[in-house]
Amino acid sequence: MKYVQWVLWFVSLPLQVALLNSLFRGGFKSFPVLLPYSLILFLSTVANIAAREGGYLPAAWQKAYWVVELIQNWLLYVLILSLVSRAMRQSRHRAKTVRWLILAIGLLWLAALCLTQGPRLNQRMTDFGKYVAFGGALLNLFLWGVLVGTRHPDRNVLMISGGYGVQSAGEAIMHSLRMLATPSRSYPMVIAGNVIGSLTHTLCLAIWWRAVARENAQRVARPLTGVSSEE
């Protein structure tokens, strides 16, 4: 598993740097929520590598990991909400729709807290993460429906939505496999879940990087050619 983890890090870190570079080049103007998410992801990945390879994992590391995980999940929900608002910018129902979605998200997280079970922190947070990932997939499905119903859908937003869909599906599978592995103490099932989660997360980063880079190129070309991202 250690060698698999290093391969995934070897692919993931350059993609994180490439995504941050595209965001700093102007992509954050179109996708502002992606910037803090990507910064937190990069810093937490570097810290995780340094701690694990240095053989030093403080007692509070587990709690810090899950706090960062919650912040990232919250930012992803905010990202999808911002994309829904962008996709519905010409609709008079945009503000009402966003308010209802915020209410639904609040109820979802509350229900997830009530349904979360497990004697230990890792088990409880894994269970909670399963519900959060499923809710994120539903929210993203709503965004996808809004985009498909648009006459000229924003292709870059479609790419962001598609990337998140891949990641949220992978996270739901990963957390489900972890929970199934707990009663039987099946280590191979845990590894399978971790690999699936890491692979889908890496694929999501690749799609996001291409979407942000494409958005930057279109922003440069737009004043010269009048080309819009919806075309």
> What multimeric state do the chains show?
single chain
Mean pLDDT: 84
- How many strand units? 0
CATH class category name: Mainly Alpha
- Low-confidence regions: 227-231
Question: What is the terminal-to-terminal distance?
Answer: 44 Å
- Can you tell me the overall shape? globular
The succession of helices and strands, N to C, reads: HHHHHHH
Number of helices: 7
Task: Tell me about this structure.
With 231 residues, the chain is an all-alpha fold. The protein has one domain: Rhopdopsin 7-helix transmembrane proteins (Up-down Bundle). 82% of the residues lie in helices and 0% in strands. The chain is built from seven helices and no strands. It has helices spanning 2-24, 34-53, 61-87, 94-115, 121-148, 155-184, 187-225. The protein is globular and about 55 Å long. The model is unreliable at 227-231 (pLDDT under 50).
In short:
By secondary structure, the protein is mainly α.
Q: Main attributes?
A:
single chain, 231 residues, mainly alpha, Rhopdopsin 7-helix transmembrane proteins, 7 helices, disordered C terminus
Q: What is the fold's blueprint, element by element?
A:
Layout: H1 2-24, H2 34-53, H3 61-87, H4 94-115, H5 121-148, H6 155-184, H7 187-225
Helix pairs in contact: 1-2, 1-7, 2-3, 3-4, 3-5, 4-5, 5-6, 6-7
